[in-house]
Amino acid sequence: MAAAPAPKTTFTMPPAWQQAHPSGDVTVLTAPESNFAIALVEVGPAADGKAAADAAWKAYRPQGIHPFKLATERPGRNGWEQSTVIDYETSPNEHLAISSVARRFGKSWTVAIIDGSEATSEKRAAAVNLVLQSMRPAGYQREMFTGRTAHPLDEARVAQLIDFVRSAATGLKVPGVGLALIDHGKIVYEGGVGVREIGKPEPIDAHTKFMIASNTKSMATLLLAKLVDEGKLRWDEPVIQVYPQFRLGSDQTTRSVLIKHLVCACTGLPRKDFEMVFNTTRNTPASETFKILAGTEPTSGFGETFQYNNLMASAAGYIGAHLLHPDLELGRAFDQSMQEVIFDPLGMHDTTLSMEEGQKGDHASPHSNDVHGNVAVTSQDVNYAFLPFRPAGGAWSSPHDMILYIENELSEGRLANGKAMMSPANLLARRERTVPIGEDQYYGMGLMEDSTWGVPVIHHGGDLEGYHSDMYAIPSAQVGAVLLTNADNGPAMRRPFMRRLLELLYDGKPEAVADVDAQVKRTDAEEAQWRSKLVNPVPAPIASGLAQSYRNADLGTLTVTRKGDAVRLIAPAWSGDVAVRHNDDKTESLVTIEPGFQDLDFVVGKDAAGKRTLTTRDGQHVYVFTELPAS
């Protein structure tokens, strides 16, 4: 028997997935749900990435593909010399995730086809990341910094990092970035680049406050770690023993949830962010967290896959605070507990959980690109909607305060005065790997580990409207960094910044600058393509056919208003103008175009009884708003 040909591309197979080889050059990896697959196709020579993807689809599914939407280039990485991402047109009602990633080594292209249910794509995102990140030309050896001694963050390297941030902010149209750096317990830089608000001169400085969003999560888990230290709870203790009011879906599921499960993103509980940002107001009580969780059931098994859920992290913070202040309302208990246990001991005097205090004095305003591609200040409405769930993402902080927080991570809980804030064991328990996020990337308890380049980086991102951040601790180098941005293009800066920091510490290949340049081009191309599909203002026949108001049992009421040609949707937590997009399946969508709250899609339709409807979706849920009787 002839020996099998050597593989041209290597990859890591996700656990519990099925592998098939319908032809010699096609490998199909199928998710456990059977409605989603990744096809890896060895194409050989092709004119470019799109041509390679076209050939791959013919080999994988000859009956055809969805219409082409957009092709954007990425830098060649992981042994590849060229990389192209191809997106395809789908209609919202299809609820599909379809794309291709074409990569070239020498003259040969290998294409990864993403094909199937959007719900499964979200549920199995960690497995998709694992396959895509582990794909390499056979025999390629990764660049690893393991065993190298880190350079100090001296004046020259700090200057290079500041220059990198300034250039990235300019390219990505981010008005202001807060930055802080620490090396072996010494803050070597704190300040920033740019301005707090576009059109105004006040610069970002060390004490400028930004919303840090999900970076609040690790602070909430630090509170839990302190309570474990004090014997007030255990990581492996059932939640209902600590907080009997807690409920998650069924009785069986509720009994299975331990304290550590609240913050591990490993319970199989999907996002339910729409319930948070549609139907809450500034007066919604903190107990709403537990009300929503009670009606939520996991969609995958405990420990099976990474699924990020803000409500569980919110519950964790409130339960910990309730143990300290059982007589206070949950929100007040959390605010007071964080002040007493975390902020005050660490000297974080700029940090607050109050939206009002956060927006006083030296603070950054949120920004996003408007429907014309221009940078504009955005509303804080959606950010206010997170206030009732603030352990998951409601804190404001500054570069100065956040680098003090990172210093505590690097010192493993030992304060600047030499006293121990808590035991290293329980602080470090938050970093223990629970579920993988991708290749050499893991989630702990409100913290992530990224060991892509061999050196573990402990970090976590934060995202709210107009505010996007990340914090980085490199324990082996005793180096840390904080990056706070005030615009919705900010996320495109975060991983390149991590890469640039590691390049300077370990003499890595210079890749970060090209990564940002590619992000700039991709962002511009995607925004231009999105705008090209919009019809604005809403055509009169569509506008006149809308009901005055609609209601969904989970998300509340949507009211439709008109002012001149503009059509506006008003929810309890937000409001925004909409345009129309004509979908390929002959349906029409109302699409939000408000800066900071764009591309939320509502398909216009009718139900079986003939009532007018607006249908929106997140990754794993469908929400139908049905018309209410005219007032």
Structural description of this entry:
The chain is globular, with a radius of gyration of 25 Å. The model is unreliable at 1-5 (pLDDT under 50). α4 (155-172) runs parallel beside α17, α5 (216-229) runs parallel beside α10 and α5 (216-229) crosses α11 (330-346). The chain has 18 helices and 30 strands. It has an 8-stranded antiparallel beta sheet, with helices on both faces. Strands 23-24-25-26-27-28-29-30 form an 8-stranded antiparallel β-barrel. The chain has a 7-stranded antiparallel beta sheet with strand order 2-3-4-8-7-6-5, with helices on both faces.
Q: Keyphrases for this structure?
A:
8-stranded antiparallel beta barrel; globular; 28% strand; alpha+beta; 30 strands; 631 residues; 8-stranded antiparallel β-sheet
